[in-house]
Structures are given as structure tokens and as C-alpha cells.
């Protein structure tokens, strides 16, 4: 990197990446002060979450959830989804990829939006679009996220498969689909594709189950739910190759050419109209000019709990640091980061807990919006035991008055992982209809290290699904 900054414009804080994490970092770093911030974005302000991930995916999933509830409620008549209406509603949540409202928000916060690709070209110095040079007085924050990874399977890349952006921004519904992968994106994509009318859907999963990072029962219930909708699940599957004689770059969310044939070991070759690849993410650090010594072996930019890299002026928040690839965790890290930058700029100590991102360590909540939903926080039983922690577990089916009133076919399961020594919760997992709203109570208990005896006095309202907390405590008496 060069270090000539004579012609550089100056800001107090420069943030590379205009997604939710970048927006939060910039806002918190200058809040209530005269400090200035620049937010650099080469695509859309609002980032992956707003246009290609969280918002469109949940907009696609919710109609199917409502339809499922209606079909399993006596006295309610339900037909089928209108795919074009569902897609139109999704587009309303992504503002048809118009980020003007996000830019207006940034302007109102005193953040200047700069369009273009950014590259670090010196200490606290960034070049945008190859020519515009800007310099940070205090800090540079990298918030560039990740991109979808495509495996090196023979013929797969040449087939121009759908990645996550295509699946969330689909414009036409293929009749036959193969989903490669068994994680969150794969399960959610399979759910809405089936809801929208895909006739044949095959999941090609290398592992022995879905959602391998969760408690095993969660993946089992999701697999049963997908099979009930008509999915074919191939576990322990070795995808040996893909052939697509007529691939075409028809645009995001459109079928990319003619049919493709998949060769999976132990299976007869089968043909699909589109392939969805959901096999992980790659950090977006290539071309950023980051000192290679700061990157780990996978290309992520690790930080300490102040979100700082070994170069004290350089910070990283969100997926790009590899700590927890979730929007809400990126925003959490960004709040910590912004507060740290502000405190350092004003010469204040970093003594308070708000200046340290502790939740990244075993206290991360996540919801998989599949059918059924999976909501979890903290660590699993296996993770606890592998770490040498003496734990006990409590499991019950979710069968309470609130769940039976929720829908006629309600089914679900819950599990707690408890530290015997401190009698506190280390992890909790819920799988079932609408269990997403259960996880925050568990998160508070995990983060607050609330003794389980104290939870007897957190009385669940009747009749709600939260009554399962009482059943879990009773199972442990």
C-alpha cells in the first residue's frame, strides 16, 4: 500500500460496506457529536439483508406459513398461494431494489454515502472507484459481508446455477429443482419454493441430516416437514457432476437455460429445470487491499471483542469477520464498534460491558424460518460436552394449551442445556410452529446467567406456547 494522503478528503470515520452492520457502525460512531462519517457502497445501501437475504426470504416464507395455519384450523377455508402476488409483496419489502430511502436515512444521520468500489491504499486511507481518495481521522470499518460459495463440482459452475440471490429474487418458478446443501439457506429456500408450486424438489445433502449445527431433533423435524410438502431428501449424497447443455445468463431469479442433469453417487441421474446452490459463504475481502497478514486462512478479517484488528485503526463488523454470520449479530457488533470508536475519539475509557462484544461467545440466537421453525440460542449439548462442561439436558414435546390453540396440527419439541455447576442455561432449542418468539426469553436467560430456580418465578402467560417453559422446569424436578 502507498501512503501519500496529501490530496485525500477527510472524515472522522470511513465505513466500507453499506449493509445493516455498516450503517450501524457509522451511526453509532458519530452519534451526538460533530464527527463526520462516510459510508462507501458499490451496490445498494441496505446491503444483502435488505435486498437479497433476510427481507425477501422472510417475505417469501410468511405466506406459506399463513396458508399452512389456515389449512390446519377447523372452520377456516384455505385455497392456494398466488405466486405472482407473493412475489409482488416481496418486491414491496425490497423497494424494488431502490435504495433511495436508505440513502435518505444516512443523510439524516449525517452520514455521507459514497458510491463505488473501495480499496485500502494506506493507513486510514481509502480509494473509491480507483481515483477518489479519502482519509479517516479516527477509524476505518470493514463491513463488506460475504458472497455465496459455489463448490468445484465438475460442471456445476458452468451450469450457471442459482445462488441465494436468485432464490430470494426469483421471477419465475421452476417445475423441478435441486437444492444443494442442508443448512439454513437450503432449508428456507426449499420451503418457499415448494409453497410457490415447485412440483419436484430434491435436496442433495452431503451430511447425514439437515441443520447440522443445531440439536439433531431440529433437523429431523424440518426434514419431516419438507418431506410432508413433497421434497425428496438425499443424505450422505456425493454430487459427482452436473451437465447442462444449454446454460444461459438470463438474469437474477430467472431459469438459467435448459434442463440440467445431476449425477449423485448411488442414484440414477435425474433432470431438473434449475439448481439452487446453498453450500456456504465466502468473505468479501478480495480486492479490498487489506494486509494479507490480517486475514485468516479462509479470508475472514478477525477482530478482538472491541471489533478491532491488530492494526488499531482498522475495524471489522458483520459477516466479514467470521464471528457469527447473522444480520442481527452484525448489527450488534456494529453498535459495539461504533461506541468503541466514539469513546476512543473522545478519550474515554472502554471499561463498560457495552464496549465488548461478549454475545459472540456462546450466546448467539438464531431462527430458521422453515416449516417447522427452529429457534436456538447458545450452545448445543455436543458443543458443551466437547468443551468439557458438565451439563444436564431437559427435553419435552411442545404440547400445551397455547400450542393446541395455535393450530390443530401443532407439533414441536424443546431442549435446554444446563450447566450443572452454576445451574444456569447454556443453550436452548425450540422446533415447532411460530417458535421464533420463544427464543428471546431464552437469550435473556443465557446472557443474564439466570439460575433455573429463578425461572420458576417467570410465570408464562396462559394460554400461550411459552407455557413450554413451565413444562421444561417441571421435567427437571
From TrEMBL:
- Residue span(s) of domain Pyridine nucleotide-disulphide oxidoreductase dimerisation: 364-469
Instruction: Note how many cofactor molecules are bound and how.
Output: Binds 1 FAD per subunit.
Q: List the disulfide bonds.
A: 49-54
- What cofactor is needed? FAD
Source superkingdom: Bacteria
Name the InterPro entries on file. Answer: Class-I_Pyr_Nuc-Dis_Oxidored, FAD/NAD-bd_sf, FAD/NAD-binding_dom, FAD/NAD-linked_Rdtase_dimer_sf, Pyr_nuc-diS_OxRdtase, Pyr_nucl-diS_OxRdtase_dimer
What's in the keyword line of the UniProt record? FAD, Flavoprotein, NAD, Nucleotide-binding
The yes or no answer to whether the keyword Lyase is present is: no
Q: Which family does it belong to?
A: Belongs to the class-I pyridine nucleotide-disulfide oxidoreductase family.
**GO: which molecular function terms?**
dihydrolipoyl dehydrogenase (NADH) activity; flavin adenine dinucleotide binding
Q: Which residues bind FAD?
A: 58, 319
Instruction: Output one GO BP term.
Output: 2-oxoglutarate metabolic process
Residue ranges of domain FAD/NAD(P)-binding in the record: 11-329
Q: Where does NAD(+) bind?
A: 181-188, 280
Q: Signal peptide location in the record?
A: none
Q: Give the protein's recorded name.
A: Pyridine nucleotide-disulfide oxidoreductase
